[in-house]
Specification:
binds coenzyme A, 259 residues, alpha/beta, 2 domains, 11 helices, six-stranded mixed sheet
Length: 259
C-alpha cells in the first residue's frame, strides 16, 4: 500500500492509522482521504484485525480541512471535496469493526467530524474540539451538522456550530462527546488498553451491535426491535455464542473466533 499522508501499522489484532502531516497540524486534504480509504479497505478485509485506532500526534488529531486548498475552490471543487470527506466518514462509521479515536491536541472541523464518525472517543486532557467552519463563512460539511446533533442534541449542536468556538477536553467529556478522558501522558497506554479489550470481544456480536445501534436512528422503534430480535436469534448460530456461554459455565475466559 503506497500511503503518502498517514502511518499505518497492525499489531496483535489492533490496526492503527495516524495522520502524518504535522507541519499543518494534520489538516485533511484529498491525499489524506485517499490514504484513509485504502487503510479502511485493508482493515475491513483483514480478518486478523479486530479493532481500528485512529489517531494524530501529540499536537493535533487533525485541525480540519486544509484551508489552503479551499481558497481557490468554486462550488464544484467544494462539492467534489466534501463528497470524498463524507464517503470517508461513512466508511469509518460503516466499518464492521469497532473504531477508537485517540485524541490529543486539536480535533477541529473535519478532525472533530472524523472523531465523531468513530465509535468511541478517548481524549487526552490537552485535547481541543470544535467546529469552527462558521468563522470561515461556511458550515461543517463532513457530517458535523448531522453527527454532532445526534450526539449532543439540537440545542447544544446549534450553540457549538453557530458560535464555532473551540472547547477543551473536559467540556467535551461533560457533553458526552468523549467517552474517556485521560492525561496526555496516559493517552497511548489507555488507548491500547481499551483497544485490547475490544479486540477480545466476539467480532460478529460487535458488528451486529454496531449495525443495530446505527439502525436505531433511521427506523421506528418497532422495526428496530424486530431487527434486534432477529439478530439476537441469528447469533445463536455462531460458534462464538457457544464458546461465550460454555466458557462462562466452565468459569474460564472465552476465546472468540468471529464465526
Ligand atoms: N489548514 C491548513 N493549514 C493549517 C490548518 C488547516 N486547517 N490548521 C493549521 N494549519 C497550519 C497553519 O497555517 C500553520 O502553518 P504555517 O506554519 O505554515 O503558518 C501550522 O499549521 C501551525 O498552525 P498555527 O495556526 O500556527 O498554530 P497555532 O497553535 O497558533 O493555532 C489552531 C492552532 C488549530 C488554533 C489554528 O491553526 C487554526 O485555527 N486552524 C484552523 C482550524 C479550522 O478552522 N479548521 C476548520 C477548517 S474547515
Amino acid at each position: 500500500m503506497d500511503l503518502k499522508t498517514v502511518l499505518y501499522w497492525k499489531d496483535d489484532g489492533i490496526a492503527t492509522v495516524q495522520i502524518n502531516r504535522p507541519e499543518v497540524l494534520n489538516a485533511i486534504n484529498e491525499d489524506v482521504l485517499i490514504d484513509l480509504s485504502l487503510v479502511l479497505d485493508d482493515v475491513a478485509s483483514d480478518p486478523q484485525v479486530k479493532v481500528l485506532v485512529v489517531q494524530g500526534d501529540g499536537n493535533a488529531f487533525a485541525a480540519g480541512a486544509d484551508i489552503k486548498n479551499f481558497v481557490s475552490y468554486g462550488p464544484q471543487d467544494a462539492h467534489n471535496y466534501i463528497y470524498q470527506v463524507q464517503v470517508t466518514m461513512n466508511k469509518i462509521m460503516a466499518l464492521g469493526k469497532p473504531t477508537l479515536a485517540s485524541i490529543a491536541g486539536y480535533a477541529l472541523g473535519g478532525g472533530c467530524e472524523m472523531a465523531l464518525a468513530c465509535d468511541i472517543r478517548i481524549a487526552a486532557d490537552n485535547a481541543f474540539f470544535g467546529l469552527p467552519e462558521i468563522n470561515l463563512g461556511i458550515v461543517p460539511g463532513g457530517s458535523g451538522t448531522q453527527r454532532l446533533t445526534r450526539m449532543v442534541g439540537e440545542g447544544k449542536a446549534k450553540e457549538l456550530i453557530f458560535l464555532g468556538e473551540v472547547f477543551n477536553a473536559q467540556q467535551a467529556f461533560q457533553l458526552g462527546l468523549v467517552n474517556f478522558l485521560v492525561s496526555a501522558e496516559e493517552l497511548k497506554e489507555q488507548t491500547l488498553k481499551i483497544a485490547k479489550k475490544l479486540s477480545k470481544k466476539p467480532p460478529l456480536a460487535i458488528r451486529t451491535a454496531k449495525e443495530l445501534i446505527h439502525l436505531s436512528y433511521d427506523v421506528d422503534i418497532y422495526t428496530g426491535l424486530m431487527m434486534e430480535k432477529e439478530k439476537f436469534a441469528f447469533l445463536f448460530s455462531s460458534d462464538d455464542q457457544k464458546e461465550g456461554m460454555t466458557a462462562f459455565l466452565e468459569g474460564r475466559k472465552a476465546v472468540f473466533k468471529g464465526k
